[in-house]
Every structure is written in structure tokens, then in C-alpha cells.
Amino acid sequence: MTGSADAAPARTRAARFRHPSDGGRGPRPAVPLAAVAAAFTLAQLLLVRPGMGLGWDEAVYVSQVGAGAPASYFSAPRARGISLLVAPVAAWSSSTVLLRCYLAVLSGLALYLALRTWRGLFPPRVLTLAAALFASLWVTLFYGLQAMPNYWVAMGALAVVGAYLRAGAPPADRAALTGLAAGAALMGWMRPMDAVWVVLPLLAVGLLRRHRRRSAALLAGLAAGVAEWVIEAYVRYGGLLHRLAEGSAIQGGLGWHLAVVDQVRSLGGRTLCRPCTGALPAPLLTVWWFVLPVLAALALYFAVRAGRTTATALPLACAASAAFPYLFLIGYAAPRFLLPAYALLAVPVAAALLRLVTVAPRRRRPVAAAALCLGLVVHLAAQVTVLVHVAHGTTAGHRAWSRTADTLHRLGVRAPCLVTGDDALPIAFYAGCSSAATSGPNADTTADAIARTARRIPVATLVPAGARPPAYARDWPWVPAESRRLYYTLGRGEFPVRPGQVGDG
Questions:
Q1: What confidence tens digit (pLDDT) does each residue in 112-142 have?
Q2: Of the candidates 70, 107, 150, 228, which lies 20 to 30 Å from 341 by C-alpha distance?
Q3: Average pLDDT value for residue range 278-304
Q4: What percentage of the chain carries pLDDT values higher than 70?
């Protein structure tokens, strides 16, 4: 009888914690969520396509573990989480298609698992809609199958906040503490500074409310994730503060920069907006971005009225914290930077949208539901339009790099070899060469060092059309390569001349 009496309050508290329309914890409520995750994977493969080729940043990450090209210069802000994530494929295969398929499947699975962490906090239909909202953004679809860290920070953020909330629900949930540590480790593994910004509200709440176990799990996971990055700071970059300073310099100097308008400009399909000038995208492409904070405020309002403030306020606070540095502290924009914020906003925003339908008078609910569906269809059409445009342009750019690499091979520039100049890093990766730069964020050598290298192995220098080559390459033959001049030597003083291929330097 004593055991039953003690168990009853625990069951009552657990029932109060779970949403009244939770629908249970069995497998059936998870089926719609799994269907959205599977559709997300399929949409990536159909709309972005796995044959897109690797981008600049992807080449850096993949080259650290791949056998197809020497490791590219690894600048201070980067972390090695993505390199380790792609290693199971990249370490033994140079197939971009295989790598893309692997990442697409993995990203769909991660979306499902991250939102499953929220079960019991919100009804299954809210989590399903949240998955659909986040997965339908062009930036999510575009980066889900890429070897880039931002999507994985977003998944870690979702898991961390959901696990933090679940860990505070009676009865004690040890699995939630494990998920909390694992999500924090994933974020730290991928982008240490992003991880810190995401967890700041959680640490503040843990300190104020003395959530010792949750705070300990969060800090342990974060420490495990950033440990390699911190150790590498002392081994390669002269210490942690020096690495942070160097990373800030590469990003243009962290400080007060109003990048809100820059982020809006990037919504039209600019993967990197630096410098960020030009006209704003069409309103149809950006209206969702301005509606998002309104829906977030409505979600908080509904949560306060329902007496369930924490489950809504905490993800909103973490989303605001994650977005803050990219809206106010850097002088350029890339839409992928805000993926963690979008992921965290998806759950409360989905709850607000469904609540707007249910608060309407019963006779008008079908009209409200139809209006919501219509708005979502229009939004999806706009996102797919941008996605197709971005994927087409990116694929064309990557193919141009591949053609330049083929030109290098035809000229006899083969491994071991060195490529410098305009877009040297990705072209070198495609050609299987090393890359080097004498200026810019990837500067790692000098002109004299390149000249000495040219006496030993093949070296190519890519110069924009109309620009003068560096001094060490002025006597080298050149050929046109896309929109550039390709100056080259095969080393040991060899300058092969082929009729119709060599310019007048």
C-alpha cells in the first residue's frame, strides 16, 4: 500500500507534464514523423541531387580524411566534426554521389531522432508539423546532404533542448540526460562557438533553478565535444585565445554589425552574402522570415495562457541566443548560419499554427485549416523554386571547377602537384593536388616558397582574366580555363608548349 501511495503522486506529476493530447508513447504516433523524415531524405536526393559535386568548404572538410587529395588548409574557425562524420565513406571512396546519399539518409534519421526527443512535451501532430516546416526550407534541403556542420548543429540543438526539458519531468529520465550530453557533444564537435551560444539560456536556467544533474550533463557533453578543438588550438594555433582571435579576424572581426538585412538578402538564394549588396528578394520569398517572430510571440502567449511556459520559452530563448551572433556580430551573411535557430523555432511555431486553427469558432475551423494549408503550399512552392535555382547554379559552378581540373591533367599537372590563385582550393581538390595561398583567410605560404616548389613538382596558378600573374609565374606558359588564365609548369624547369594552347603571357 505504501508503494502504491508513493507511485500515485509521481504518475499524477507525469500526467501533468505530458501534453493532454500526447497520444501515448507507443510507435504509432511516431509514424507521421518518420514519414516526414523519409520524405525529407527523398526530396534532397531528387531536388538537390547527389551529383552536385563538392563545394569549397566541403573540399576542406572531406580532404582531411579522404584519400583523393592532400588535406587542404584548415583555418582557425573550423572544427573537425564534419570530417569525422564523413570519414566512414570518404576514407575509402572518392564518390561524391555515394557521400551525398549517405549524408541524405543520415540527415533524415537525425531529424527524426532529434524531434523524437520532444515526445511527451508536445502532441505528435505538432512534432510532425515542426519537422515539415523545418525540412521544407530551401536552406535545410540544400545543406542536409552537404558535408557542412550547420545542419548538424541544428539537430544537436533540437536534441539538447528537448532532452533538457524531458530530464526535468518526473519520473527521472536517465535516457534524457544521456541525450542531453550527446546533443551538446554533437554541437561542440561541429561548431564549438555555435554550441556555446545555443546552450547559454540552458546554463542560465540551470544556475538559477539549481538543475545540477542537467547542468552537469550539459557541461560534460559540451566539454567532450569541444575538447579536440581546444587541444588543437594549443598544438597548431598558439593557444585558445590566439585561435579565437584568428577566427575572429578571418570572419572580418567580430563586433557590432547589423546583419539582419544581409540575412534577408541571402534568402533569395545567396549561399554566401559577402559583401552583401543588391536588391532584396521578392516579398514572396521573404515573408515567412518576418512572420516567424510573430508566430513565436503567439506561441509564447498561448503557452503562458495554458500554464506550459517552460516548454515553449526555453526553445525560443535558445533560438534567439543561437541567432544573435549571426544577426548582430558579423558583417556578412549566409543562410545556413541560422539553421539552429530555425530548428528550435519550428516546434513552438508549429504549436502556434495549430492553436490558431483550434481557437477559431467551430464553424470557421475548416476555413482556418484551409487557409493554413494554402499558406503552407504557397510557402513550399516558393522554397522549392529557390532551391532548384540554387542547386542548378551551384552544380554549374562545381562543374566548372571539375573542367579546370581536367585541363590541369591534360597539361600534365598531376599529383604530386600544387595549385595557387583564384579558386585554387576547390580546383586543387578536384585535381588531386595540394593548394596554397599567399594572402586571404587561407594564407599559408609565400611567393618564394611557391617558386621553390615549382622547381620540383608541377605547379599551376589561376589568374582572373585581365589580371597580371604573380612574379614567379610571369614566364610560364598559360592556357584559358573557364574565366581564368591558367599559368603552369611541370617542375624541374619544364614548360611544355602545345600549339594553340599557349598565350603570350
A1: 999 999 999 999 999 999 999 999 999 999 9
A2: 228
A3: 93
A4: 91
Domain count, the chain: 2
Strand 418-421 with 459-464, pairing: parallel
Q: Which helix (H) or strand (E) holds 460?
A: strand 459-464
> Alpha-carbon distance 53 to 401, whole Å?
9
Query: Structural domain of residue 288, as residue ranges?
Result: 23-359
Sign of dihedral through CA atoms 185, 186, 188, 193? Answer: negative
Measured between alpha carbons, how far is 503 from 505 in angstroms, rounded to an integer?
6
Query: How far apart are the C-alpha atoms of 294 and 282, rounded to whole Å?
Result: 20
Q: How many CA atoms lie within 13 A of 137 on its CB side?
A: 26
Residue-level pLDDT at 25: 45
State the pLDDT at residue 15. 41
Phi, psi of 376 (to 5 degrees): -70, -35
The length of the chain is: 505
Residue type present at position 263: Q
Domain assignment present for 171: yes
370 in any annotated domain: no
Which cell is 52 given? 552536385
Residue 134 lies in a domain: yes
C-alpha cell belonging to residue 154? 541544428
